[in-house]
Automatic annotation (TrEMBL):
It is found in: Membrane. This is Penicillin-binding protein PbpB. The gene is pbpB. Residues 7-20 have a biased composition (Low complexity). Belongs to the transpeptidase family. Its main location: membrane. InterPro entries: Beta-lactam/transpept, PBP_dimer, PCN-bd_Tpept. Keywords: Membrane, Transmembrane, Transmembrane helix. It comes from the Bacteria. The chain crosses the membrane at residues 25-46. Residues 268-577 form the Penicillin-binding protein transpeptidase domain. Residues 70-223 form the Penicillin-binding protein dimerisation domain.
Length: 609
């Protein structure tokens, strides 16, 4: 018989013992709590990763992370033979972890200030910087000195000091080419030393490279061996090779210094250039300074290269440009004859020569040899309107040379609207226009180079300035300014300048060599634009005259009264040119100077004036 199940009298009601505390109910409550907690975490995750990820990531990365700067080694500045003019040697920085040094800061700051000649208050502040694990204490210290100080601090019981590589900029030759090289200032708060002058400043990025850094996790002030780390290697700067010859540069600076001092001058400039390539072999300024210790020379005007930054009226050296242009234009030759009076009236002044004379029978060569202002003005009257100005522009008078030195000036030439007959007369003999010494050297070198002007260069190869310009010998261009015949005749006339009987500068001669040159004496203009009574004396030329290899230009500003281009700058030119010729082993050509007529007799024909 089939058994049937008897129903409970409380069918449909929960059995005894299955109330609120029963297992299914507790599970439902548990799931609800878990869901709420997960929702909170999910919301927080959305906030961290979606709404403000950068700030929270930075906070997480900073917690327990040390950052150490890895300085790049600055590129060297080299002379043409690879000798360092500016280089970087091994040095160390001392860094502190304020998390460890703060507790002992007063005593540690006292030790550091005494040993390293640091400011006590500033050092104390660095040792106490809150929430920091890396602070510079001292930069670019000799390695032995830095390590000795850290060892002493450690032995005294101080903790939290370490050292890192920090190359030191040095200038092995002291003042040699300092005005061209420039120098670096003290390291800034960011750790970089700021370039303050010369090539160091112009090619700052090229030389500097890019610093690297190391990041690693720390705990209790110590690096965690298994902690996360990241290394970005520094990228060292590129070297910069110049066209300068450090040995010749040293001599030129000394010869210029002696000349300026002997003449009682305010300052001076001397430049030596390779005649065919335009490479600057030496570019000297006086006064100068020691790039290794610029603070010893507080006058910041001395830091610049005045060969490119200062403009002045060139005086009679400019006459060779005038005469070369006239010959090129077919207006005259070196034999053209002139009757030259003692003075000549122009629109607004009377032109005189530096010596008193009556009427002279001079050829064009004689005008150059004796440096006659009056004769030059008479010759310049053959120019068509605007013709001389156009030639001077081609010689590079109104353009920067673009050698890559900061502060370079372009020179000044009267505009076409200002170009009156009186202005043209003054410009013809080197007044009422302004040039830089490097511009004038390149212009004279155009005659040496057979009438072809080549851009001067201070950088070998090519390099990029901070302004984005690519400069150097690989970028140098050339252009013909006057014909080869015009340059030849001008060179022959310039040789007469050194003739002991006919010329104005026999003291500029170099024994054994044929030399072509020209004197210059010009009035100086003050800040108000008026002549102040002082002068600039100069001499520019090249040798050997019949096969030019080197061009030299010397200028002395504000020498004592009575100084002249032939008597003051000429002897300096002879010393520098003589040493340079021997330095490069350039032999005399063995030929004799051609005899060129400088005067003419009463019965001669071909009288121009």
């Amino acid at each position: 018989m089939r058994r049937t199940r008897t129903s409970s009298p409380r069918a449909g009601r929960p059995r005894l013992g299955s109330g609120r505390g029963s297992s299914p109910f507790r599970l439902r409550i548990g799931f609800l709590v878990i869901a709420v907690v997960l929702s909170v975490f999910a919301g927080r995750l959305v906030q961290l990763q979606g709404l403000d990820p950068n700030s929270y990531a930075a906070m997480a990365a900073a917690e327990g992370t040390a950052v150490v700067a890895l300085p790049a080694t600055r590129g060297e500045i080299l002379d043409r033979d690879g000798e360092p003019l500016a280089d970087s040697v091994a040095g160390l920085m001392i860094i502190a972890d304020p998390g460890l040094t703060a507790a002992q800061a007063p005593a540690l700051a006292t030790l550091l200030a005494r040993r390293l000649d640091l400011d006590y208050v500033e050092t104390l502040e660095r040792l106490r910087v809150p929430d920091s694990q890396f602070q510079y204490v001292a930069r670019q210290l000799p390695a032995a000195q830095a390590q000795r100080v850290v060892d002493e601090a450690t032995e005294a019981g101080f903790v939290g000091l370490t050292t890192r590589d920090d190359p030191i900029r040095t200038y092995p030759a002291g003042d040699v080419a300092a005005n061209v090289l420039g120098f670096l200032g003290r390291p800034s708060e960011s750790g970089r030393a700021r370039p303050l002058a010369g090539l160091e400043a112009t090619f700052g990025d090229w030389l500097a490279g890019h610093d690297g850094e190391a990041r690693y996790q720390v705990g209790d002030g110590n690096r965690l061996p298994l902690g996360e780390s990241r290394l970005q290697e520094p990228e060292d700067g590129q070297d910069l090779t110049t066209t300068l010859d450090s040995n010749l540069q040293w001599y030129v600076q000394r010869a210029l210094r002696d000349t300026v001092r002997k003449a009682g001058g305010e300052s001076g400039i001397a430049i030596v250039m390779d005649s065919s390539s335009g490479e600057v072999l030496a570019m000297a300024d006086h006064p100068t300074y020691d790039a290794s210790d610029p603070e010893a020379t507080p006058d910041q005007e001395l830091y610049k290269s005045r060969a490119v930054t200062d403009i002045y009226e060139p005086g009679s050296v400019e006459k060779v440009l005038t005469m070369a242009a006239l010959i090129d234009a077919g207006k005259l030759t070196m034999d053209t004859r002139f009757s030259v009076p003692g003075e000549l009236a122009t629109d607004d002044t009377v032109v005189h020569d530096y010596w008193e004379h009556g009427v002279l029978r001079l050829t064009t060569a004689g005008i150059v040899a004796k440096s006659s202002n009056v004769g030059t003005v008479l010759a310049s009257e053959y120019f068509a309107k605007g013709q001389l100005r156009s030639y001077l522009e081609q010689f590079g008078i109104t353009r920067k040379t673009g050698v890559g030195l900061a502060g370079e000036q372009a020179g000044l030439l009267p505009t076409a609207a200002q170009w009156t007959d009186a202005t043209a007369a003054r410009v013809a003999f080197g007044q009422s226009l302004s040039v830089t010494a490097l511009q004038m050297t390149a212009a004279v070198n155009t005659i040496a180079n057979g009438g072809v002007r080549v851009d001067p260069s201070v950088i070998e190869g090519s390099a990029v300035t901070d302004g984005g310009a690519t400069v150097g010998t690989e970028q140098a261009t050339s252009r013909r300014v006057v014909s080869e015949e015009a340059a030849r005749q001008t060179s022959l006339m310039m040789e007469q300048v050194l003739d002991p009987e006919e010329g104005s500068a026999p003291a500029a001669a170099v024994p054994g060599y044929r030399v072509a040159g020209k004197t210059g004496t010009a009035q100086r203009v003050n800040e108000e634009g008026f002549y102040d009574g002082s002068t600039t004396v100069s001499f520019g030329g090249f040798a050997p005259a019949d096969d030019p290899r080197l061009t030299v230009y010397v200028a002395v500003h504000d020498p004592r009264a009575g100084s002249g281009g032939g008597s003051t700058a000429g002897p300096a030119f002879a010393k520098i040119m003589g040493v340079a010729l021997r330095h490069y082993g350039i032999p005399p050509t063995g030929s004799k100077p051609e005899k060129v007529a400088t005067e003419w007799g009463p019965g001669d024909d071909n009288l121009a004036r």
